[in-house]
Amino acid sequence: MHPFSRFMVYFLAVARHKSIRRAAEELHIAGSAINRHILLGEKELQTPLFERLPTGMRLTAAGELFYACARRWVKDLDDLTRQIDDLKGIRRGQVDLLAPEALSRAFVPQLVADMKASHPGVVLNVNIRDNKRICQALLSGEGDLALVLDPDDMRDIVVLHRMTFPLGFVCPPAHPLARKSSVRLAQCMDHPVIMPEQPLAIASVFDGLLRGARISPPVAARANNVQMMLSLVAAGIGICFLSSLDVMAEVLRGELAFVPLAGVQVPHLTLALVHDRTRQLSRLTRQVEAMTRDIMARHARQRDCRAAPIIP
């Protein structure tokens, strides 16, 4: 618990759980003590921060404003603590990383493993979010760094590193498409397709390609989860459209095949590591940045090696 403001910690816990009882259970503090501090805070501010309902506690309009301020306070205090640790040369602490679900299978686990191996005292807190909301969550102080797919240009978002992954079709290794080095969209429409659905970022990309080519694929199934799509492909239900990042682990194990989509207008998936321009990165966060950059470079080398032609 932060020693500088019990009220702030109690307030955040009640706002998060919408209940004094559940906040007390989390903090291992008597509910009466939490309620007393909340009442004292409301008296000092001369306005109620919560509506006390039969079903629990709900933030008032003033409470919502205070909640946003309190979260920034916590992040600023964390930043200060990390900077003090940097001055003392302490290699411990934690970094909050925001990432989309698409990276939860291969990229992020590798990052966590590498960080734990090189910096055992560092805890990497990974928060999986909807890709479209990651940058806004970062600006709201919910993370130190963020991995985001195809980021939009935003005033206070700084791109530290980026790399691209080809898009294409995933199929079983024995599938006729697996023998090709690349395929065009029309070539794949003779095979049942597992359609990606929102909130997968790939869904809007695939939909745009189909509209542009005026093609309606034979739909075998629909799924909004990468793992489900890959499981359906492995079961022989159909082929699916993903990025090489999504299926990298399965391709390396020989379980599935990835065939890049050819064509001048075919987009690539961009993965970017970003941070909030208004916040200074601590040395610990810079270490996570460097580790992420190394993993990106490693993936790029592996991709280039697989794409290189074999010369007899």
Automatic annotation (TrEMBL):
**Which Gene3D superfamilies does its entry note?**
3.40.190.290, Winged helix-like DNA-binding domain superfamily/Winged helix DNA-binding domain
UniProt-listed InterPro entries: HTH-type_LysR_regulators, LysR_HTH_N, LysR_subst-bd, WH-like_DNA-bd_sf, WH_DNA-bd_sf
Q: Name one Pfam family in it.
A: LysR_substrate
Q: Which GO terms describe its cellular component?
A: cytosol
Q: Where is the HTH lysR-type domain?
A: 8-60
Its domain of life reads Bacteria
Question: Which terms are listed as keywords in the entry?
Answer: DNA-binding, Transcription, Transcription regulation
Tell me if DNA-binding is a UniProt keyword of this record: yes
Keyword flag Transcription: yes
Can you name one GO molecular function term for this protein?
Answer: DNA binding
What protein family does this chain belong to? Belongs to the LysR transcriptional regulatory family.
Q: What is this protein called?
A: LysR family transcriptional regulator
